[in-house]
Amino acid sequence: MKRYLMILAAAWFMVPATQAGQAISASDMGLSRTDVRDAPAPPPTEYTQSFPGSNERLPVAYVTAPPQIPHNIALFTPVKAGSNACLGCHDKPNMRGIKQKGLPTSIPASHYAEPAYGKPAAGLAPTAGDKLSGSRYVCTQCHVPQANAPTLVDNTF
Asked: With 80 as the cut, is the pLDDT of residue 78 above it?
C-alpha cells in the first residue's frame, strides 16, 4: 500500500511538468506587442515655480473637481499634524464663499463640517463647526499643484 501511494504521489507531481507549454516572451505580454523594457520613460514633470499670489486661479476640470493649486508648494509640504502652512493664507473664516481677485481662495464652509460617518443621530448631514475638519486638514489629498505635463493618454471625460 505504501509503495502504491509513493508511485501515485510521484505521478501526481510529474503531470504538471509534462503539461507546461512554451514560455511567453516579454514582447507578447502587453497590448502593444513590444518589449516592456523598451517603453520610453515619460519626461520629468515640471511643476510651476511661481510664488503664491502671482498666478490666476486655474480652471476647474469638472463641476465637483477640487481646485488645483496655481503656485509652488515646495515650502508648504509635507503637511503634518499641527503644521499646515496653507492655513496661514487660506483659513479666513470671514471670507468663506467670497472670491476676490488678488486675494487667496478661502477654505469653503464645507471643509469646516465634520462628516457624519454613519452616526445614526446625525443622519447623512455633516455637523457644522468653526474649526477646520480633521478629514480636510491635509490639503494635498485633493488639491494638487498644476504641472506642465503632456497628456500621455487621451481622455474624453
From this structure: yes
